[in-house]
Write a structure and sequence with these properties.
The structure holds two protein chains of two kinds. Chain A contains 19 helices and twelve strands. Chain A has three domains: 118 residues, no CATH class; 115 residues, no CATH class; 170 residues, no CATH class. In chain A, helix 12 packs across helix 17. Chain A starts with a helix and ends with a helix. Chain A is of the alpha+beta class. By secondary structure, chain B is an all-alpha fold. Chain B has a single domain, classed as Up-down Bundle (Amino acid/polyamine transporter I), CATH 1.20.1740.10. Helix content of chain B is 71%, strand content 0%. In chain B, helix 2 crosses helix 3, helix 4 runs antiparallel to helix 12 and helix 9 crosses helix 10. Chain B starts with 10 loop residues before the first helix and ends with a helix. Classes of the chains: A alpha+beta, B mainly alpha.
């Protein structure tokens, strides 16, 4: 040890890893298009394609079947965890291995025999293209190959573990359905179909992403939705040149018109009832496998500001809620900016007593009102963001600690004034009253822009941003529909129910800016019982 | 300009767009000009001017036969004539936009931002007008439908809040400076000079929507608004004091005693002033660009917006408040009004004669 202290010793080489450029070609099998008659060729290609046996979750089970006394080799491939073993055993292996020696009809080919009589499964397809057979293995199907046959069989045996249908996390309502979408494409489409219960509902399949080939469904009512709108949705989905699309929220960003605008141009909802209402109006929904959010297009800013619950509540209640919500929207967007403008530029506008009270409250604070406001806004955003990340019970504790204790401490320490706490708290509460999470995000962003504009030029700054913001909103389109319709451009649709509600039986007309095939969704007098003579 | 590139507008949108352009004039000193001329009967003069404008417009729109001024000037005067008309309109509107930049900036600086430089305010105005010009006349007209209703409601609110200050005796003598003065005060139609813009925007109208209908409705609505506002202003401020204020509506807003959080209603006036200013300047700039685009058959109007903005700012910076009051400024508006009311009937008239 003493020697080590005084004498130099070359340090031992420590292992270090650095990523270097990888110029090796990615291993891929010789391309093959169709199923071969030779089972060995099919087996070799399948193993190479799926990197078997390196890929531990891929299962290849070889077997023999006996057809009219002749033994034929075969194999089945599936992905462990995606496909159900019991289903494969019962619907594929058992009949093929044990029942295959039935008497064949005269002239019946082997693949017809297998297709029609041996595999008792409802979702079974025959395919010559080997890649079309093997691709769905990643989506819970199994593929079956039999020697001497130039076709293979793909069987839907999905049985992966998934979340059940629960309450939508971000769009809870007190009254109305409590079902929400989950990550299963077919569970989601089923929720829509069973609610609408009409053969006019079309669910076209689309695949997204060149590599991921994520399944999606384009849903619309064929007797209502405008054909050009459906074509446009189809066109946009088919023309996204990207390797992977893994979520509907990713897809929304690929198909929306203006990326740099703060407002969301596609509704993403977890509520089947909201999707069904949209389809009835003539909109198109896009369900993406693996996403609990279903996209609705086209959309307007007024759709974003409404909640599905509005239609479930009786007129007086929903009227009151709409008023409160409008106030919330204005407050969440403008409260801090107006406060700053009044405090820094337009003191003469407010009553003298209030002005004195505000000045007194701020007298001990060492920061300018802008810095004070930004500090509070930042703290609020931090609490909000941290509250999402931490587990449930701790999250509410964090809110209490952050909101009450820190706020009180900040006021006591003269870092912020009590009035600023009130302004930021009212803004925060108001932002939670906005029904759309996406719109509330947009307002969160725009609030800062308004605040900076107010800090620079008072009301003039606020009005400048407001003019540009609203003009951009009017200029925006969502899948061909004006984003501010039916107000700007003014269409023939009623505008009273944009801001207030109207009796549910007074509806009748579908939004005319969607140009639906069928303009009405109910008779002019929907409550016929009231006027009909018995 | 291909049809697919333009955002179509309806009659209601065009109406409110024009209403904003007309009514925003009374936020300036135009009411004072009426009062200077006709005294306490200024509101009768405003109604008379609205009527005269209506007659002129109906005659001009009858002559137009639904054509816009560019196609009519091409048919009437040939390519050179059309280009001359287009350049004249484009230049006049650009000049107007530049002057308005300055006027709005000066007044905003004096009533809301006394410590800020004019250039900074002009910069924000440029930003708003630039976005408006990029959005185009179609979007601006669509926007004007919401803005028009909101702005007229704000004006109405100021007038309603001012009810306690109305004094009925202020309207005497009923005929003000005399009936002959009222009749000869037809020069007050300069408030409606922007009506000729409707002959520029017919390409934006939806199929079946009428230019004539929009113009008539706009003149009637704004005639009512301007007459009522002038009448209520006269009720509030006695003559001749009423002829002395540079911003009469601001004066009314000052008189409002709110006493609930806000002391007075200047905030509402500020809102009116700034929003109408943005729309007015945005409209002048957009129409100037539109005229240039139609005259030279440009494929993309956005390419020239930057240059037009720069020229407008240079005009704004050249003019200062004192020169705005000068004879040059007054003469410019006389020329603008004359062109607005005389050029379209001449062009449409020649076209009809040549047909």
């Amino acid at each position: 040890m003493i020697r080590n202290l005084f004498l130099y010793k070359e340090p031992a080489d420590k292992y270090q890893f650095e990523i270097t450029a990888d110029n090796t070609a990615s291993p891929s099998p010789q391309p093959m298009e169709n199923v071969s008659n030779d089972i060995n060729v099919n087996l070799k290609y399948t193993k190479e394609l799926f990197s078997f046996p390196k890929n531990s979750d891929i299962v290849i089970r070889e077997f023999d079947i006996s057809v009219e006394g002749e033994l034929l080799r075969g194999f089945v491939i599936c992905a462990d965890g995606l496909a159900g073993s019991a289903l494969i055993n019962e619907s594929v292996l058992l009949p093929l291995m044990c029942l295959s020696d039935l008497e064949r009809r005269h002239g019946e080919s082997t693949h017809d025999y297998i297709y029609r009589r041996l595999i008792p499964h409802v979702r079974l397809t025959r395919e010559r293209d080997i890649n079309k057979l093997l691709k769905p293995v990643n989506y819970g199907n199994c593929a079956v190959f039999v020697d001497t046959l130039d076709v293979g069989f793909s069987i839907d045996v999905k049985a992966w573990a998934h979340r059940g249908i629960g309450e939508p996390a971000n769009e809870t309502v007190i009254q109305g359905p409590h079902e929400g979408f989950n990550e299963m494409l077919r569970a989601n489409t089923a929720l829509i179909r069973k609610t609408l219960n009409t053969p006019n509902l079309v669910m076209e399949t689309a695949t997204l992403g060149k590599t991921s080939q994520t399944y999606a469904s384009i849903c619309y009512l064929k007797n209502v939705a405008n054909s050009s709108l459906v074509d446009e949705v189809r066109y946009r989905l088919n023309n996204i040149d990207v390797e992977y699309i893994l979520s509907s929220l990713n897809l929304a960003q690929y198909i929306e018109e203006s990326t740099y605008l703060s407002i969301p141009q596609v509704v993403a909802t977890e509520r089947p009832d909201r999707v069904c209402n949209a389809l009835v109006e003539g909109r198109v929904a896009i369900v993406v496998s693996g996403s609990p959010q279903v996209l609705i297009v086209p959309t307007t800013i007024f759709d974003m500001a409404t909640s599905p619950e509005d239609t479930y509540l009786r007129l007086p209640y929903s009227f009151l809620i709409r008023i409160v919500r409008m106030a919330a929207i204005v407050l969440s967007l403008l409260a801090p900016a107006v406060f700053l403008a009044v405090m820094n530029f337009h003191q003469e506008l407010i009553l003298t007593d209030i002005l004195f009270a505000l000045s007194k409250a701020r007298s001990a604070v060492p920061f300018s009102s802008l810095i004070e406001l930004l500090l509070m806004e930042l703290s609020f955003e931090l609490i909000k963001e941290a509250g999402i990340r931490v587990p449930g019970p701790v999250g509410s504790t964090l809110g209490i600690v952050g909101g009450l204790i820190l706020g009180q401490a900040a006021v006591s320490a003269n870092i912020v004034s009590p009035i600023m706490i009130i302004v930021v708290a009212v803004t925060g509460i108001a932002s939670f009253a906005i029904p759309s999470y996406q719109l509330s995000f947009s307002f969160r962003f725009m609030r800062f822009i308004y605040t900076f504009a107010a800090a620079v030029a008072g009301f003039f700054g606020i009005f400048t941003v407001m003019f540009i913001d609203t003009l951009l909103i009017v200029n925006t389109k969502s899948f061909g529909a004006a984003y501010a319709a039916p107000l700007a451009p003014r269409t023939k649709a009623k505008i009273t129910n944009l801001f207030f509600t109207e009796p549910i039986w007074k509806g009748g007309r579908r939004p005319d800016y969607l140009e639906p095939k069928d303009k009405h969704d109910s008779a002019k007098i929907s409550r016929t019982w009231k006027y009909k003579k018995r | 300009m291909s049809d697919s590139n333009v955002r179509k507008i309806g009659s209601r949108e065009a109406t409110w767009f024009l209403v904003i352009l007309f009514v925003s004039k009374i936020l300036f000193a135009d009411i004072n000009e009426y009062i200077n001329f006709s005294g306490t009967a200024a509101y009768i003069q405003t109604a008379w001017c609205a009527f005269a404008t209506l007659v002129l417009f109906v005659v001009t729109s009858y002559l137009s036969g639904g054509d816009d001024i560019f196609s009519a000037s091409y048919a009437a005067l040939g390519n050179v004539g059309m280009k001359s008309v287009g350049i004249l309109i484009s230049a006049l509107l650009l000049l107007d936009a530049g002057v308005m930049f300055r006027v709005y900036a000066d007044i905003i600086a004096s009533i809301a931002l006394p410590d800020s430089s004019d250039f900074f305010i002009i910069l924000l105005l440029i930003l708003a007008a630039g976005v408006a010009a990029f959005a185009g006349v179609g979007t601006l007209a669509s926007y004007a439908y919401i803005a028009g209703i909101v702005l007229v409601s704000s004006l109405a609110l100021i007038l309603v809040l001012n009810i306690p200050n109305y004094t009925l005796s202020n309207i005497y003598p009923l005929l003000g400076n005399g009936g002959d003065k009222i009749l000869s005060g037809i020069g007050g139609i300069n408030v409606y000079a922007d009506i000729f813009l409707v002959f520029l925007m017919s390409v934006y109208f939806k199929k079946g929507e009428s230019v004539k209908k929009s113009g008539v409705k706009a003149i009637i609505i704004s005639g009512i608004v301007i007459t009522v506002t002038t009448f209520l202003y006269i009720l509030t401020v006695p003559y001749p004091a009423s002829s002395g204020f540079a911003l009469p509506i601001l004066e009314i807003a000052f008189d409002v005693n709110l006493d609930v959080i806000f002391q007075r209603a200047e905030g509402l006036f500020l809102f009116l002033w700034i929003f109408s200013g943005f729309i007015l300047i945005g409209a002048y700039l957009s129409f100037s660009v539109l005229s240039f685009e139609r005259t030279f058959n440009l494929s993309d109007r956005r390419a020239v917006i930057g240059v037009f903005l720069l020229i407008a700012v240079c005009i704004a910076l050249c003019a200062d408040t004192s020169s705005l009051k000068s004879e040059v400024y007054t003469a410019f508006y006389k020329v603008f009004t004359a062109v607005a009311f005389i050029l379209p009937p001449i062009v449409f008239g020649i076209k009809r004669l040549r047909r």
